[in-house]
Specification:
alpha/beta; binds S-adenosylmethionine; binds iron/sulfur cluster; Elp3/MiaA/NifB-like_rSAM; iron; GTP-binding; metal ion binding; GTP 3',8'-cyclase activity
């Protein structure tokens, strides 16, 4: 059992307390989604990637300093060998006594290709909620978007997660001319399977071999259009992430909107991201990051590590500055891929 007193929490220079950590456990993936990776993606050399022990040690330090929610992501987290050992270790931080450092929630974001294999194990580690990325229910379209995904496999994974009793949120990247005609189908399907749906605006991150300016779709327009056919009742419900929710009266399920491009969601941002190489990113929309791997591998103790973290958090910017289409030849305003930082 992990017992640790809560050490001083981590405020940034705007007074936002850091309570939410997203950790990318790998940059590798069995898909190549058009908005996320290039077709011939070069992955990082293994030596650059933190071991699961190293990741566990860093995450434990964050938890001791007030992080209450941990989301495991990637790349595809479930393709990392022995990733369940990591979930087991992090699960040990759940349900700690009051006043002790610990997690309120352990979650993951996955493409579900291997969820059928791991759903029961994740539940046993204390996971109660998963975000599953799914941009289309049409097998051919799904294949085109993911470049190598198999819709049937992803649906098997979703089924297994439901059977294991996990709450599911489907994440759909909204793309003009790609899947914009499917939102009604996705809303109805999520109603049938008892899942929430979250629509995400395409963010200009990393080269993918696709021009995202062609596909950019403001969710304010999508919402207006959906409201012609569905009754959207705004909700105050939050999951700690950037999504804003409404309930769809006709299905009883929630719909979320993540709108980094049309809405500035930074004021209440309590998140930082730890990449699989041990870089700490305090803002998804900025290049700035802090290397934690070098001090970790040089033998820094926890106090020294947290000095690095504290300094990084004080540099967390007030907000991001994504702007798609400012320069059509170079839509990637942030050069790193989402799969390195973790979406
Ligand atoms: N492989 C897992 C998955 O797809 O769910 C986890 C990692 S993936 C990078 C996390 C999330 O980032 C996914 O929901 C994906 O749709 C989203 N994502 C990736 N690139 C994006 C982009 N350029 N704009 C918006 N969302 C993106
Ligand atoms: Fe892989 Fe997820 Fe990126 Fe798709 S969005 S390529 S599934 S990491």
């Amino acid at each position: 059992m992990n017992i640790a007193p809560l050490t001083a929490p981590l405020p940034d220079s705007y007074g936002r307390l850091l309570t939410y950590l997203r950790v990318s456990v790998t940059d590798r993936c069995d898909m190549r989604c058009i908005y996320c990776m290039s077709e011939d993606m070069t992955f990082l050399p293994k030596a650059e990637i933190l071991s699961l022990d190293e990741l566990g040690r860093l995450c434990a330090s964050f938890i001791r300093h007030g992080v209450r929610r941990l989301r495991v992501t990637g790349g595809e987290p479930l393709v990392r060998r022995d990733v369940m050992d990591f979930f087991r270790e992090m699960g040990g931080w759940l349900n700690r006594p009051d006043q002790q450092a610990g997690l309120d929630e352990l979650t993951l974001t996955t493409n579900a290709s291997r969820l059928a294999e791991f759903a029961d194990g994740l539940r046993a580690c204390g996971v109660r909620r998963v975000n599953v990325s799914l941009d289309s229910l049409d097998p051919d379209r799904f294949r085109r978007i993911t470049r190598r995904g198999n819709l049937a496999r992803t649906l098997d994974g979703i089924r297994a997660a439901r059977q294991a009793g996990l709450d599911i949120r489907i994440n759909t990247v909204a793309m003009a001319g790609v899947n914009a005609d499917e939102f009604d189908t996705l809303i109805a399907w999520c109603g049938e399977i008892g899942a929430d749906l979250c629509l995400i605006e395409t963010m200009p991150m990393g080269e993918t071999g696709e021009d995202r300016t062609d596909h950019y779709l403001p969710l304010s327009d999508v919402r207006r259009d959906l409201q012609q056919r569905w009754t959207l009742e705004p909700l105050t419900y939050r999951t700690g992430g950037p999504a804003r929710y409404a309930r769809i009266a006709e299905t009883g399920r929630r719909i979320g909107f993540i709108t980094p491009m049309t809405h500035n969601f930074c004021e209440s941002c309590n998140r930082v991201r730890l990449s699989c190489t041990g870089r700490l990113y305090t803002c998804l929309g900025h290049e700035g990051s802090t290397d934690l791997r070098a001090p970790l591998r040089a033998g820094a103790d926890d106090v020294q590590m947290m000095d690095h973290v504290r300094a990084a958090i004080l540099r967390k910017p007030r907000g991001h500055d994504f702007l798609i289409g400012r320069n059509a030849d170079d839509p990637a305003r942030v050069t790193r891929h989402m799969s390195v930082t973790g979406g």
